[in-house]
């Protein structure tokens, strides 16, 4: 969904350990158009709004006022009150959803997956809003549970984060990812803007448009995951990847959270691979075992990089957190930590 409502930089989270917070979630209060005119349509069954010069048409149970909280290549997101459930939701309009076959597949994939998922750390679909005319329609409206912001906004803000906040965020990411992987689903596009948060520090994974069921028989595509969070096997065009690609992304996200800047901000694929090798070092021959011969040949002709010390490069990060991240950011996906909580109990993530 690429984020909830933008959160002002001066919004303050509790300094208490997030797991112990008792404050109630606050609904998003985005700035912008405060009085958007509403027009009844289709015999009063629907309400039309004009938002950013675009028609936003939803069933009449979503009463005014409606607030725009996001806009992107996918369309517009607005917050609205469902008068039947008395719940505020985030409604995403995907305009001309069927004009492009790839975009249509992503939309249908997300709906299909999220309708079958039910977990505290995975965003929930509340409603698929039917079109006024089922025989002829181009736009899709999906109502999700409303969150306040996303991890990208928090990282870019001046909001101070305690170690307990970061620990709690990482725990929730891995908890949600464990559930997703247990359903044989790879998310394939984990990044800070796809991790939604509310004022109580609850975190939910969103945007399953690139997710893929691992049992599907067609070849996996390498065109997944935003470059900065892309695992080495994807950078090397491997089509035989596993859930380990999501674990790599989480490692990158966590270090960005701790350091308040991207870990590997590559401008292109070549620089991206160089940046990660500058930190974790050139892989050994044994670590190249999962690659095809062309990829191995490419790696061998690159300059040799000595592995840097994570503890020296990130002295402000807890040593046990460093130990955990190092196990997530291994070049060889076969050696990468899984999201199994059994494996994680001995690490910094879960206090004893």
Automatic annotation (TrEMBL):
<keyword id="KW-0460">Magnesium</keyword>
<dbReference type="Pfam" id="PF00069">
    <property type="entry name" value="Pkinase"/>
</dbReference>
<dbReference type="InterPro" id="IPR008271">
    <property type="entry name" value="Ser/Thr_kinase_AS"/>
</dbReference>
<feature type="compositionally biased region" description="Low complexity">
    <location>
        <begin position="16"/>
        <end position="31"/>
    </location>
</feature>
<keyword id="KW-0067">ATP-binding</keyword>
<keyword id="KW-0723">Serine/threonine-protein kinase</keyword>
<keyword id="KW-0547">Nucleotide-binding</keyword>
<dbReference type="InterPro" id="IPR003527">
    <property type="entry name" value="MAP_kinase_CS"/>
</dbReference>
<dbReference type="GO" id="GO:0106310">
    <property type="term" value="F:protein serine kinase activity"/>
</dbReference>
<dbReference type="InterPro" id="IPR011009">
    <property type="entry name" value="Kinase-like_dom_sf"/>
</dbReference>
<feature type="binding site">
    <location>
        <position position="93"/>
    </location>
    <ligand>
        <name>ATP</name>
    </ligand>
</feature>
<dbReference type="InterPro" id="IPR017441">
    <property type="entry name" value="Protein_kinase_ATP_BS"/>
</dbReference>
<keyword id="KW-0808">Transferase</keyword>
<dbReference type="GO" id="GO:0004707">
    <property type="term" value="F:MAP kinase activity"/>
</dbReference>
<protein>
    <recommendedName>
        <fullName>Mitogen-activated protein kinase</fullName>
        <ecNumber>2.7.11.24</ecNumber>
    </recommendedName>
</protein>
<feature type="region of interest" description="Disordered">
    <location>
        <begin position="1"/>
        <end position="31"/>
    </location>
</feature>
<dbReference type="InterPro" id="IPR050117">
    <property type="entry name" value="MAPK"/>
</dbReference>
<comment type="similarity">
    <text>Belongs to the protein kinase superfamily. Ser/Thr protein kinase family. MAP kinase subfamily.</text>
</comment>
<feature type="domain" description="Protein kinase">
    <location>
        <begin position="63"/>
        <end position="350"/>
    </location>
</feature>
<dbReference type="GO" id="GO:0005524">
    <property type="term" value="F:ATP binding"/>
</dbReference>
<keyword id="KW-0418">Kinase</keyword>
<dbReference type="InterPro" id="IPR000719">
    <property type="entry name" value="Prot_kinase_dom"/>
</dbReference>
<keyword id="KW-0597">Phosphoprotein</keyword>
<comment type="similarity">
    <text>Belongs to the protein kinase superfamily. CMGC Ser/Thr protein kinase family. MAP kinase subfamily.</text>
</comment>
């Amino acid at each position: 969904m690429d984020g909830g409502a933008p959160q002002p930089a001066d919004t303050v989270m509790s300094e208490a350990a997030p797991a112990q917070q008792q404050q109630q979630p606050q609904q998003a209060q985005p700035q912008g158009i405060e009085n958007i005119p509403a027009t009844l349509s289709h015999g009063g069954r629907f309400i039309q709004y004009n938002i950013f010069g675009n028609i936003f048409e939803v069933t009449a149970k979503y009463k005014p006022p409606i607030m725009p909280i996001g806009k992107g290549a996918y369309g517009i997101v607005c917050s609205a009150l469902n008068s039947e459930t008395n719940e505020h939701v985030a409604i995403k309009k995907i305009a001309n959803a069927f004009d492009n076959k790839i975009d249509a597949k992503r939309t249908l994939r997300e709906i299909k997956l999220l309708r079958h998922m039910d977990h505290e750390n995975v965003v929930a679909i509340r409603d698929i809003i039917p079109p006024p005319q089922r025989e002829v329609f181009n736009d899709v409206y999906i109502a999700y549970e409303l969150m306040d912001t996303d991890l990208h906004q928090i990282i870019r803000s001046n909001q101070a984060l305690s170690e307990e906040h970061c620990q709690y965020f990482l725990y929730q990411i891995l908890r949600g990812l464990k559930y997703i992987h247990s359903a044989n689903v790879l998310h394939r596009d984990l990044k800070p803007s796809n991790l939604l948060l509310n004022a109580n520090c609850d975190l939910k994974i969103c945007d399953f448009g690139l997710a893929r069921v691992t049992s599907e028989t067609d070849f996996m595509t390498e065109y997944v995951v935003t470059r900065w969070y892309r695992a080495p096997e994807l950078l090397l065009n491997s089509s035989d990847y596993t859930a380990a690609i999501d674990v790599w992304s989480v490692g990158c996200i966590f270090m960005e959270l701790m350091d308040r800047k991207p870990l590997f901000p590559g401008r292109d694929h070549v620089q991206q691979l160089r940046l990660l090798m500058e930190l974790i070092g050139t892989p050994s021959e044994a670590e190249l075992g999962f690659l095809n011969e062309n990829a191995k040949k490419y790696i061998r002709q690159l300059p040799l990089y000595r592995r840097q010390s994570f503890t020296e490069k990130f002295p402000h990060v807890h040593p046990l957190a460093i130990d955990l991240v190092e196990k997530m950011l291994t070049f060889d996906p076969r050696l990468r930590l899984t999201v199994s909580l059994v494996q994680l109990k001995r690490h910094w993530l879960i206090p004893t």
